């Protein structure tokens, strides 16, 4: 097993975390903040849109079971990468679609994934590829949110099940039982 790390942002981190927790080869998903200027930002600060941070997830995965390229294909299929600084009703730079490559190989793969996935979208993909700045884990109550509080949150109940359905339909061989 070769453990790898990927950092991606696709809107609300509760939603992207829920998707990637169901992917074979993923051992850990941590919600957090990246891409901004405020040190140790809080959820409230990030939600204000003034920190420059994106709500993101840091995915730990076994690249013998899941390649970075496949991870990015799942990322592009389970959120709308054509919406600038928003996902649905979540609006602001904190909800931007972004990839934070951790090395030169991931940079090349991110560029290739954008080109490869453009054919699946009627509008231009606006996902950014950004320098990975300091990663700040989100507060504890945001971790594994869908497995707990999210099951009672009307927003999550409206947004997450369709993403999980798309994952199961488009990537059935990649979904944990």
UniProtKB/TrEMBL annotation:
Its EC number is 1.8.4.11. Gene3D superfamilies: Peptide methionine sulphoxide reductase MsrA (3.30.1060.10). Keywords: Oxidoreductase. Signal peptide: none annotated. It catalyses: [thioredoxin]-disulfide + L-methionine + H2O = L-methionine (S)-S-oxide + [thioredoxin]-dithiol; L-methionyl-[protein] + [thioredoxin]-disulfide + H2O = L-methionyl-(S)-S-oxide-[protein] + [thioredoxin]-dithiol. Pfam families: PMSR (PF01625). It comes from the Bacteria. GO terms for molecular function: peptide-methionine (S)-S-oxide reductase activity. PANTHER family: PEPTIDE METHIONINE SULFOXIDE REDUCTASE (PTHR43774), PEPTIDE METHIONINE SULFOXIDE REDUCTASE MSRA 2 (PTHR43774:SF1). Belongs to the MsrA Met sulfoxide reductase family. This is Peptide methionine sulfoxide reductase MsrA. It comes from Sphingomonas ursincola. The lineage of its organism: Bacteria, Pseudomonadati, Pseudomonadota, Alphaproteobacteria, Sphingomonadales. The gene is msrA.
